[in-house]
Design goal:
heterodimer, A: alpha/beta, seven-stranded mixed sheet, three-stranded antiparallel sheet, 13 helices, B: alpha/beta, six-stranded parallel sheet, five-stranded mixed sheet, 18 strands, 35% helix
Chain lengths: 346, 511
């Protein structure tokens, strides 16, 4: 059974992706782990698979060819890293030996075997994990807003994880997802779109053999901690509501994550221990040669930061896309110059 | 707190103004009792504006929170676990942080050691490995070693204890080996510092000259097991008693505290709990070195209690030449010839014995004290350092072999009803428990506390409460009064005395 797992990141998230890959490798030494990189290394740093827990690398350029630069220009960093997931899934399903494909967000760490998901895929084509699997109490308004209403806004399922088999149905899903993400992977909640995630509300409607995994040990995160408690059993196994902790989603490492974890984990000290461990692991895997906030596609070729409004303008106007097919370039007759001259109002 | 008063009391970064400091803190920066009355709400929760000052795991020390203290006051209550974890460094840093900067003293040569040992009255030489100077540092293990030294001298043996010059919360680095500096204490007197290699060289010469040598291991903290193996082989010892004073043979966290937060039970090294723990990261290598030691030497593991023996055997696969249970103290109870009068009117007195450290249950004592002070109960601390954290009374007590009953006498004198010993790990013996009982007090504890709860269960002198909520309930309702009445009646008619062990000399073939 060949299982191909992948994660999508830029070099700014390499430390987190390394934590994921290392934790996944510990559980599944036989899986093929892919790094999907939407970035190019900063000067003085090289990404060498020999030194990594990853087996294989595929870049945005590998996936999107000559359109990469201008296509990515229409996306901010979060949109870009999520937009490539559909194409990467399609690509991995083309591997000659593939039986299963599993995606993890880079800010996830795996703590126990993922075999139950692989077994689920014997009867299912697609496995998704909802943000919440238990309703909040009616009188807990804050939890309803933080969790359930947020799920209505950002998507029912958390697309930090998705697993498929290699069936025709799985390929149909991957192709549909790629198609939508190619054109519509934006943070546009005003029109009901949130990057790659909200599209997947439609998955149970469009596809057969979709498994909604309600085991609380999967995709544990601040958005479901209100209904999940962690403890260790006598053998030291981490349990969530009595089920083995499979993977934890360490979303928003920093003060925001701290506040939400504190709010919902409260005195469940084991959750705070998980975070303590994660912070140390991220620090251990941080490479000082990567400048803070590095993203090759985040700047024009002269180093000027590409602002979100520039990206939105570019993606909204076909005329600009035709006039400036290499939008990151600067100099005479460039999009950069056009922006300077017109202030974006041309 | 009203923002106006907050501005009056504190400067912008949350630091107290001079007047505030003078009113709430002593000159040595410890908090006055008033401080605790001010910062806590009636339900015991710390008021939000005071979180900055309550962030220390040992309450009372005004500390600045990393990343928060100087520039801003932490506005949201940190959970108790977060407070501990924010201060928890990685294991390598924890070890590096305690390393001394001081230069090594002049080292004793093999010849000097040899001549000092040759000058002693004739008799066998007992080499003893432990972690610090048992003559200077107070503590249960140190007291045991003092008793053993006394027993050795009574039996005509010379007692040479060696402890690492560099205190470490771990084994010495593997590379240190024979270069590891150790300080020697000969028949109770510190004679200087040398290296393990030099000590071994001196012992080799003595053995060659016909000296009989024995070796006992009380603790391996800071030691190099490899060089102890070398020393034992050189000394040609028959067997090596290895005392299980704690669980350092199972984990560098000798009290088995996962991330300094909770008792872990020594799960497998590959378990989630171990992988996520600061000590787990070093545990695999630690266990390999301990195992190599046990494989190399004829070790007799000695447990101070049956409950420790049972737990240790269930968790350890170390090869042994033997196993024994030798309690440090045995209690004798007998009816008093003339029962004392019973005073049921005195306020209920709750004691805490020893240093205010978390694994001995100080957090539980301080919480109960804060919640129930002012309800007619008296909270008294007996130790060699004043905690200054809101206790009603503090009594200086330092137990030595010269005054082995100092604690029990102090407990009896203060008419303590209950000693709260809320250990967060399975105490292997617990002198405190025995001192409480011989002082006439009963013990309140939890099911995790090892020999504390085993002793309470066996004697019936005290109560084993399931958790802090249960303990709090005991204090909140009439049950504590009923228990105190039973305690006072029992204490009036029964005398409890303690018989001291001779430690290793209580082992078969050693007396």
């Amino acid at each position: 059974m060949a299982v191909h797992a992948y994660t999508s990141f830029t070099f700014s998230y390499l430390n987190r992706a390394r934590v994921l890959a290392t934790s996944l490798r510990r559980q599944h030494p036989d899986w093929v782990i892919w790094a999907v990189l939407t970035d190019k290394p900063p000067e003085g740093f090289s990404f060498d698979l020999k030194d990594e827990a990853f087996d294989r690398l595929v870049t945005a350029e590998d996936l999107f060819g000559e359109e990469t630069d201008r296509w990515l220009f229409a996306h901010d960093i979060v949109e870009a890293c999520t937009a490539v997931k559909g194409r990467a899934h399609v690509r991995l399903l083309q591997e000659p030996d593939v039986d299963r494909v599993v995606y993890f967000d880079p800010d996830i760490a795996v703590f126990n075997s993922m075999d139950p998901v692989i077994q689920l895929l014997a009867d299912n084509a697609i496995v998704l994990t909802p943000h919440q699997v238990d309703p909040e109490p009616a009188d807990d308004t804050r939890a309803i807003i933080d969790n359930e209403i947020a799920s209505l806004d950002y998507g029912t399922f958390n697309l930090g994880f998705v697993a498929t088999d290699a069936s025709t149905e799985a390929k149909r899903f991957a192709q549909w997802w790629d198609d939508r993400l190619h054109d519509w992977c934006h943070d546009r909640r005003d029109i009901g779109v949130f990057v790659d995630q909200k599209w997947c509300n439609l998955v149970p409607c469009f596809f057969d053999r979709v498994k909604v995994l309600r085991d609380p040990g999967y995709n544990v995160a601040s958005w479901n901690l209100s209904q999940r408690r962690m403890r260790f059993d006598e053998e030291g196994r981490a349990l969530i509501n009595g089920h083995p902790l499979r993977f934890y989603h360490f979303t928003k490492l920093g003060p925001t994550g701290d506040v939400m974890t504190r709010r919902y984990a409260g005195t469940n000290s084991e959750i705070h221990e998980l975070w303590w461990w994660y912070r140390n692991e991220v620090e251990r895997f941080t490479d000082s040669r990567i400048p803070k906030g590095w993203w090759h596609y985040g700047t024009f070729d002269n180093g000027d930061v590409i602002q979100k409004r520039m990206r939105e303008l570019y993606r909204s106007r076909k005329d600009l896309q035709l006039a400036f097919p290499e939008p990151r370039q600067t100099g005479k007759d460039s999009f950069h110059e056009w922006l300077e001259v017109t202030g974006g109002n041309g | 707190m009203n923002p106006f008063w907050y501005r009056i009391l504190f400067r912008k970064a949350g630091k107290p103004r001079k007047l505030t400091r003078a009113v709430l803190f002593r000159k040595d920066r410890t908090a006055r009792p008033l401080f605790y009355r001010v910062i806590h709400k009636k339900n015991g929760v710390v008021r939000p504006h005071w979180i900055y000052w309550a962030a220390d795991s040992s309450p009372g020390l005004p500390v600045e929170l990393p990343g928060a203290g100087v520039e801003r006051v932490e506005t949201e209550n940190l959970t108790p676990a977060e407070k501990v974890l924010r201060r928890l460094p990685r294991f390598d840093r924890m070890v590096a942080d305690v390393r001394r900067d001081a230069p090594l003293p002049d080292l004793l040569s093999a010849e000097t050691i040899q001549s000092q040992l040759s000058a002693l009255p004739p008799g066998e030489l007992l080499l003893v490995a432990s972690h610090d100077n048992y003559r200077e540092v107070p503590g249960g293990v140190q007291l045991c070693i003092q008793h053993e030294e006394k027993a050795a001298q009574e039996r005509g043996l010379n007692y040479l204890q060696f402890h690492p010059w560099q205190h470490l919360p771990a084994l010495a680095p593997e590379g240190d080996g024979s270069d590891l500096p150790v300080t020697l204490v000969l028949n109770g007197k510190m004679i200087g510092t040398t290296t393990m290699g030099t000590l071994t060289e001196a012992i080799a010469s003595l053995v060659a000259a016909g000296q009989q040598v024995r070796l006992v291991v009380h603790h391996l903290l800071g030691h190099s097991p490899e060089s102890i193996t070398q020393l034992a082989r050189t000394a040609q010892v028959r067997e090596v008693p290895f005392w299980l004073h704690d669980f350092f043979t199972l984990c560098p966290s000798y009290t088995l505290q996962r991330n300094n937060l909770a008792f872990c039970g020594a799960p497998p090294t590959e378990s989630n709990a171990c992988q996520l723990c600061v000590y787990g990261q070093a545990r695999e290598g630690h266990l390999q070195r301990i195992e190599a030691l046990f494989k190399s030497l004829p070790i007799v593991a000695v447990s101070p209690s049956q409950v420790t023996a049972d737990f240790w055997k269930s968790k350890s696969k170390l090869p042994l030449a033997g196993f024994a249970v030798v309690p440090h103290v045995v209690l004798d109870t007998r009816p008093k010839a003339l029962p004392d009068p019973v005073d049921q009117s005195a306020p209920i007195t709750i004691g805490f014995l020893g240093g205010a450290v978390p694994h001995k249950g100080w957090p539980a004592f301080s919480e109960i004290m804060f919640r129930h002070s002012g309800t007619g109960r008296r909270f008294v601390v007996f130790s060699d350092k004043r905690p200054g954290l809101g206790e009603d009374e503090w009594h200086f007590v330092h137990v030595t072999t010269d005054e082995p009953d100092a604690m029990a006498q102090a407990v009896a004198k203060a008419k303590v009803d209950f000693v709260l010993h809320w250990a967060s790990w399975p105490e292997t013996f617990s002198f405190t428990t025995f001192e409480a009982l011989t002082g006439g007090a009963w013990v309140l504890t939890n099911p995790v506390s090892g020999n504390v709860q085993a002793t309470v269960q066996r004697t019936g002198y005290g109560a084993v409460l399931d958790d802090l909520a249960d303990l709090d309930r005991l204090f909140a309702d009439e049950e504590l009064e009923k228990l105190a009445a039973r305690r006072r009646a029992e204490s009036a008619r029964t005398e409890i005395t303690a018989r001291q062990s001779a430690l290793s000399f209580d082992l078969p073939g050693w007396s």
